[in-house]
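Open question from group meeting: does this chain pack into something compact, or does most of it stay loose? Before anyone orders reagents, we agreed to write out a predicted structure and look at it together. Recording both the input and the output here so the notebook holds the full record.
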Amino acid sequence: MNLDTLTFSATPFSARKVGNRRFQVINCLMLIVLLTDCQFLMAQTTDTVQAPFRRFPTIPPFSLLKVDSSGYLTKDNLKKNHATLIMYFSPECEHCKHQTQDLLASIDQFKDIEIVMATLLPYNEMKEFYNYYRIADHPNIQMGRDEKAILPGFYKIRSLPYLALYDKKGKLITTFEGSQKVATLTNAFNKGN
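Structure tokens returned:
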């Protein structure tokens, strides 16, 4: 082996190895900081973005397939100068069933309130629910299928039943997630009107 023909790097091998390791550690630390910042920013934006119903506190422009499938129930079909209760439910949800039973048992307290029951579940399940609870016997209750899933995004619904209460002018009073006592609902309507 002829030492004259060998070329040496300006940096000895052990120094290059240490330099590469230092470079790798710095890169890893920068990547961790970058990912942490991204997660923090993503969490911050999702927490601070308001649900549309907060920005537009009026009855939303919904379109629900009616139970008789003859057409669509919209905001324009609601009686003017009446308070409105929008209840988003699932026919399979036990809490929704109990909320419906409670509303029907106290329907006299809601005689001047338009009740709109909306679901995303299949039409046949909605219709069974409608027939089982004899919703047709109550002219102030209308039911429909939210085929385009507009309302869950509008309200950012996380649990059912979801209740949105509006005054006679169509302005939001309050919302509730989960079953509520009839007294809670009537008190909210009384304060809002």
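Observations to bring back to the group:
The longest strand covers residues 113-119.
The domain at 52-192 is CATH 3.40.30.10 (Glutaredoxin).
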